[in-house]
Specification:
Among the domains are: about 1-85, no CATH class; about 235-335 and about 345-350, no CATH class. The chain contains 20 helices and no strands. It has helices at about 5-10, 15-25, 30-35, 40-50, 55-70, 75-85, 85-95, 105-115, 140-150, 165-170, 175-185, 195, 205-220, 225-230, 240, 255-260, 275-290, 295-300, 305-315, 320-330. This is Protein HGH1 homolog.
Length: about 350
């Protein structure tokens, strides 16, 4: 015999919008407290919820929120069901790029959950016609990047900042084919995708900064691309990693003059990133970039050590300090003599 809650779940498919709305509103808390009620009848409630993301905005809002909660649970059955539904994904991507979509940020949050499903890496080849207003490419990934950039000031959709797309990029970039995408100059705008997001490492949004930092770190696992990462005329990533971990400390003149121009003579009110996990991520990216001799030599040349020294001294966080110590060990060691180097150029540093 069905419980009252299970009966209420049945009302989300009711033909009357007012009944659907009331049912979804009352069920929303139970999507975290008792998610099992949505797994009955071979996940029929999930099928209904996926259909309702195109309903009236308030109804869709509740349906999307419930799906967000359900796909975030440790039980991956619902996540797999939603993430592998190609038709649903097409609807989701279509709604995301609609400049009038009122629930775009919720959809971005849902996509961030779905990106934890490894199979979603297939998005790298997915296409759809972009709205003219977006001025983008047919590749869905390029559309998401352009949404992310335009969301900075809500210039594309007044209802959305698209910050959670940074988490989408972070999870997807764990896969090699996505890393390659972020490093490949795109034909439609002649821009390397990673260069579109690196500028947000000091953005006011914690979500945006965290997702971008993780994406940069993940892409940095591609060792052959490190020359491009460090090249001032290509990705030039160092200023965007070092600025967030730099405070308003005073350095010796010799140390200051050796630093990258962007890090010299910072204003007295300059602050480090307020999120220690982001600082740790940036330092771990620097560790990755010491995989090659080129990276190590450049960091020594531009006085990265003093910045790490001060970070270690001033940030009271075990993870940050441990990362600082690991980086310093690499930067301060003597390189092997020519001809006897220990093949560091081919070594990946696990972080």
């Amino acid at each position: 015999m069905a419980t009252e809650l299970e009966e209420l779940v049945g009302f989300i498919a009711n033909p009357k919008p007012t009944i659907r709305k009331v049912a979804l509103k009352n069920l929303e808390p139970f999507s975290t407290e008792k998610p099992s009620i949505f797994k009955t009848q071979d996940l029929t409630p999930i099928k209904h919820l996926k259909f309702l993301i195109r309903d009236h905005p308030e109804i869709a809002q509740h349906a999307i929120t419930i799906l967000i909660n359900l796909t975030a649970t440790e039980d991956k059955i619902i996540l797999e069901n939603v993430a592998t539904d190609d038709r649903f994904l097409g609807i989701l991507f279509g709604l995301l790029v609609d400049p009038e979509e009122p629930n775009a940020d919720l959809l971005a949050m849902l996509l961030a959950n779905l990106s934890k499903w490894d199979g979603l890496k297939g998005i790298v080849n997915r296409t759809q016609d972009p709205p003219a207003r977006l001025q983008s490419d047919k590749l869905v990934l390029n559309q998401l990047l352009d949404l992310f950039v335009k969301g900075m000031d809500k210039s594309y959709n007044k209802n959305a900042n698209f910050d959670y797309l940074s988490y989408v990029f972070a999870d997807l970039s764990k896969h090699q084919e996505i890393r390659e995408f972020f490093l490949k100059r795109q034909d439609y705008d002649d821009v390397v995708p990673l260069n579109k997001i690196k500028v947000f490492t000091e953005h006011q949004s914690d979500i945006r900064r965290k997702g971008v930092a993780s994406t940069i770190k993940n892409v940095a696992f591609d060792v052959p691309s490190h020359s491009a990462f460090l090249d001032e005329d290509q990705i030039n990533i160092l200023p965007y990693i070092l600025l967030p971990i730099t405070g308003n400390e005073q350095y010796d003149e010799d140390e200051t003059l050796a630093m990258l121009p962007d890090l010299q003579f910072l204003p007295p009110d300059k602050q480090r990133d307020s999120d220690n996990s982001i600082i740790q991520t940036h330092i771990e990216t620097l560790i990755l970039l010491t995989t090659t001799r080129e990276g190590r030599d450049l960091m020594r040349k531009v006085s990265v050590y003093p910045i790490i020294r001060e970070t270690h001294l001033r940030v009271d966080d075990d993870g940050v300090r441990e990362a600082c110590e690991r980086l310093v060990q690499v930067l301060m060691r003597d390189e092997a003599e020519e001809g006897t180097e220990d093949n560091d150029d081919n070594r990946i540093v696990e972080v």
